[in-house]
Amino acid sequence: MGEKIMTDRPDNTARYWQAEPDGRLRCDLCPRFCKLREGQRGLCFVRKREGQRIVLDTYGRSSGFCIDPIEKKPLYHFLPGTSVLSFGTAGCNLACKFCQNYDISTSREVDRLTDQASPEAIAAAAKQYGVASVAYTYNDPVIFLEYAVDIAAACREEGIRSVAVTAGYITPEPRVEFFDAMDAANIDLKSFNPEFYRKLTGAHLEPVLDTIAYVAQETDVWLELTTLLIPGENDSDAEIEALSAWVAETCGPDTPLHFSAFSPQHKMRDHPPTPLATLLRAREIARKAGLHHVYVGNVHDEEADSSYCTGCGQKVIGRDWYQLTEWHLDDTGHCTRCGTRFAGVIEGPPGSWGRRRQPIRIAS
């Protein structure tokens, strides 16, 4: 094996790669370990070899910026009711046949990223608009690690939190740097079946489980998980029970788990949408497996979208889509009825952003 290189990026030079004996450069960011000759790109498309280095050619470029409710990420236990500045770039290091953002994640046109912004400009905009956090989302932020980490550092200077929405497909060394920059994360656990990952995402399950376990056990990052249930693929009772039991044991029973409804997209338009009954069945299975906070997504069900006290069982946060309808927590996150601590990051009264979606432009 050749010399290992972790550069301090002077411009758009990537980190986590090394020279191979045959002259290729191997990207060590994710478990694909793409080996690149001059001009070649990794599967993610955004990490490219230029001479004797690998560059991130989407650094400083975005597919657009929008202010959303934090619940849309989805994060239900992290600063509820607040607004989050969301953005992504292009490309992805998975190849999910069911991708819900395939127009961005499968994009091979970097030039379409017309919104340009430095980390400092994004942090300044977040402060200007009064958001509580910035979310790296739409496509997987793992592939633009250098950009995301720099933005997170600039945001921390302004008191703005950082949120990662990711599939967690990253190797151990960059995993530490990436999550050290984050305050909260929603990680997609797409299935508990290795064959599902191989067949429908072109990836492997084990590195994702390693990432989830790392975040839950070795960081202070607030963690929530999402599983998109696809009829006939990952919605069996046995798989949901096994997944839920693993989450309860590995991450703890207070880790929120979101079961989201699939809609026919991308290369899986022949599959039907997920019935509400499937989501509610999954929720009950997960609760019986020991998880305290299980939600359904992409459907309307106020009961299954609300949060309940683990002490007295009463509703402490009511939700109607992304709108908070009830709040029975004190400013330190304790139930106002019985005093039980609610799992999550609660700082004062809830935000009042509601369900609004506000696209913005950022001048770099």
Task: Please characterize this protein's 3D structure.
It contains 9 helices and 20 strands. α2 packs across α3 (145-157) and α7 (237-251) crosses α8 (276-288). The protein has 2 domains: 1-57, no CATH class; 61-304 and 344-360, Aldolase class I (TIM Barrel). By secondary structure, it is an alpha/beta fold. The strands form 5 sheets. The chain has a 9-stranded mixed β-sheet with strand order 16-15-14-13-12-11-9-8-20. Strands 1-2-3-4 form a 4-stranded antiparallel β-sheet, with no helix packed on it. A 3-stranded antiparallel β-sheet has the order 17-18-19. The longest helix has 15 residues, at 237-251. The model is unreliable at 1-10 (pLDDT under 50). The chain has helices at residues 102-105, 119-129, 145-157, 172-180, 194-201, 205-218, 237-251, 276-288, 302-305; strands at residues 4-5, 17-19, 25-27, 35-36, 47-50, 53-56, 61-62, 65-69, 83-87, 115-116, 133-136, 161-166, 184-188, 222-229, 257-261, 294-297, 307-308, 315-320, 323-327, 358-360. The chain is globular, with a radius of gyration of 20 Å.
